[in-house]
Amino acid sequence: RKFSMDDSLSWRFADHTSWSVDYRLQLEENGQLFWQSWSERVMTTRTSHWVQARLNHRSRAGVNLSPGFTVYIRKEWRHDQTETGAELKKFAGTFFSYGPMLRIRYAPSVKVHILVDGVRRRVQPEGQPFYYINDLDVQIEWYF
Questions:
Q1: For residues 45 and 26, is the Cβ–Cβ distance under 8 A?
Q2: How far apart (Å, rounded) are the C-alpha atoms in residues 81 and 3?
Q3: pTM of the model
Q4: Residues 74-117: tens digit of each pLDDT
């Protein structure tokens, strides 16, 4: 099972500039379903949080520039059973990543839109050395 909830807040404090924050909560269970008894055994649960904060600026030339920062935290638990059938819930660890991001939107005409998203995340798995993930996403939309 999975449940997610998103929310966002935007504050326009100048004609061409605003501040925005996006948040997502995700609750997840993985397990085993026993059809005959219509019961389940939960094996793993996770709670994840995403936060993105951006400063959005729209220039007169049609370019939107949005530098920002992103944070992701996931906590995970493993579930087991004792010989008597009682549930044991054991904390398995925390996964943490964060880093700067940049979004550039450009519309040279009403029919062409270009979006470039870049982010550099420092990833810190619990008990392991950190590493970096660099993502670059380029989208070109052409409307007929």
A1: no
A2: 25
A3: 0.83
A4: 999 999 888 887 888 999 999 999 999 999 999 988 899 999 99
- Report all structural domains of the chain as residue ranges with CATH numbers, in order of start: 2-142 (2.40.160)
Token digits of residue 19: 């501040």
Q: Sheet with 112-125: list strands edge to edge.
A: 2-14, 17-34, 39-58, 63-81, 87-106, 112-125, 131-142
The partner residues of 53 in beta bridges, in order of sequence, read 21, 69
- The distance of Cα 74 from the centroid of its chain, to the nearest Å, equals 10
Residues 55-71 pLDDT 10s: 999 988 889 999 999 99
Residue with tokens 């949005």: 66
Q: What span, in angstroms and rounded, lies between the C-alpha atoms of 45 and 92?
A: 10
- Cα separation, 100 vs 66, in Å, equals 11
Q: Could you write out the DSSP letters of every residue in 22-47? A: EEEEEEEEEEEEETTTTEEEEEEEEE
Structure tokens at 12: 């326009």
Distance CA(77)–CA(45), nearest Å, equals 5
8 Å CB contact between 72 and 49: yes
Contact 23, 51 (CB under 8 A): yes
